Amino acid sequence: MKMFDGDRAKNGVKIVIFALILAGLTGCNFFGGTGKSTGQSSATNEPRKPNVEFNGEMSKVIPNVYTARKELSLTFNGLGDKKTILALLDELDNYHIKATFFVPGMRVAEEPDLVKEIVARGHEIENNTLNRLDMTKLSYEQMVDEIGLSNDVIKKNTGITPKYVRTRSGDYNDNVRLAAAYNGMDAVVVYSMFLHNWQQESDDEKELYVRKYINRGGIITVDTEENNNVVESIPILARAAAEVGYGFIPLSQLIEHGGIRKPYTEIKGYDAVKINPNYKDAKYNLIYDKETDKKEIALTFDDWGTDYTITKILDILAEHDVKATFFLRAKGVEANPNLARAMIEGGHDVANHSYTHPVVTTLSAEALQEDVVKAHQVITEAIQQQPTMLFRPPTGEIDDQTAKVIAAIGYPDIALYDVTTFDWDSKNSAEDIVNSIMKQTENGSVILLHMLDDIHTIEALPTAIERLKEKGFTFVKMADLIGLKK
User: Fold this and answer.
1) Which domains are present in the chain?
2) Which of 223, 302, 371, 413 is an active site residue?
3) Distance separating alpha carbons of residues 239 and 207, to the nearest angstrom
4) For the segment 418-465, what is each residue's pLDDT rounded down to a tens digit?
5) Which pLDDT score is estimated for 120?
């Protein structure tokens, strides 16, 4: 391992710190540079003159990346002491993880060799502002300097020009975004999961926590200066990601692999479902199964779950070459749209299971229509296309008036089922679920399962699919089974 001359002369450090602080107070660039009209700093002798009235396009904000790939990024804030950082780098090497370090310019000036070692190990360096101050308490001019001067220091000491900035806490406002744009930053990066100090949790509890909140396209962050468990967290993060089947890649690659998620109003079919108070004469179809001589059946999944559960279901379906229909609780989709998109990219159909998962017969007509329309919009934006036009009521409870209310807004085909296993109840074992499926399934059946966490559906699914295939059944999506026009 490369060794460093860690005892930098104290006077030299004080001179560097003093000069940097002076630069921040006076608005002058420590290295003699200042912003061009584009906002990029340059090695000139002009003072930095931030344009308070800068009204260009603000830098975008990235809390996570829109992607169906099984990828996420591990990022770090701050620059801890040398011992901690070197131990952290060794642990990242042990698990073959390439990460992204958001480092403050002041610490880069103090420990340039340590930052160069981070780069030498194959990790990325980005901007954590100059002094990691509370940006919400700074003026716009101070924000410009906090970001711009940190860029200058990082480039001076590493040759790297940061593309992304993150504040100490991840918080931001419009002025932060404008200051980032002024300095030519591609984006203000936040995070999807912030790993705080562990308290009395066991290793198993820590791993379950990470596995619960880990998501594809996610940006995990750990503070190297404030988190006492930063080194010990790496094996936990690595194991949790491996259990789900996800891999860590540097932030720039994750962003490059991601797509642009258009607002639902720009997607064809977003307005196929609309509020309609004139529902009394609406026509509807309650669909339980399909009368057919063909040995075709439809496998359907309701509700929502974590990446671990849903990814395992998608992996099992892919392994057995089975296409299914997913009825999504849209409130969950809203928080994690990448999973819904992964279903589409896996060749499955996605349909509406409400936004809040209410018992629909308990809602007023107005509240029910608002819930279902909102769900349609959320799902449309998540998958970037019109969902399959089937609605399944939570719990399967429906009556004539409620069916008319739903049909009137654009969902005349209400999808029910003829095979139910009560798999949502964790008391039902995998064997119970399989036996129930095999006992009830016949030609044209629609099988109801759930993608909830901590139940036994994942365990039951491979066996159920294999045994159904042994009986000659083939799997089709529900829309294809019933001949629904798309």
Assistant:
1) 10-257 (3.20.20.370), 265-482 (3.20.20.370)
2) 302
3) 8
4) 999 999 999 999 999 999 999 999 999 999 999 999 999 999 999 999
5) 97
Residue from 353, 357, 450, 456 carrying the catalytic annotation = 450
Q: Is the Cα dihedral 225, 228, 234, 239 positive or negative?
A: negative
Is 471 buried (19+), middle (13-18) or exposed (0-12) by CB count in 10 A?
exposed
- Is the pTM for the entire model greater than 0.85? yes
CA distance 205 to 190: 25
Which stretches of the chain score pLDDT less than 70? 1-54
Q: How far apart are the first and last CA of the chain?
A: 60
Asked if 199 contacts 55 with a C-beta cutoff of 8 angstroms, the reply is no
**Distance from C-alpha of 36 to C-alpha of 33, rounded to nearest angstrom:** 9
In three-state secondary structure terms, 165 is strand
Instruction: Say whether 302 is catalytic.
Output: yes
pLDDT at position 199, please?
A: 86
Looking at residue 429, its amino acid is S
Alpha helices, H only, 129-229 = 140-158, 174-182, 203-213
- Three-state SS at 221: strand
Contact indicator for 121, 94 with CB cutoff of 8 Å: no
H/E segment holding residue 188: strand 187-189
Give the per-residue pLDDT at 54. Answer: 63
pLDDT of residue 355: 98
| Tokens read off for 139 | 């003026």
The reported pLDDT for the residue numbered 19 is 53
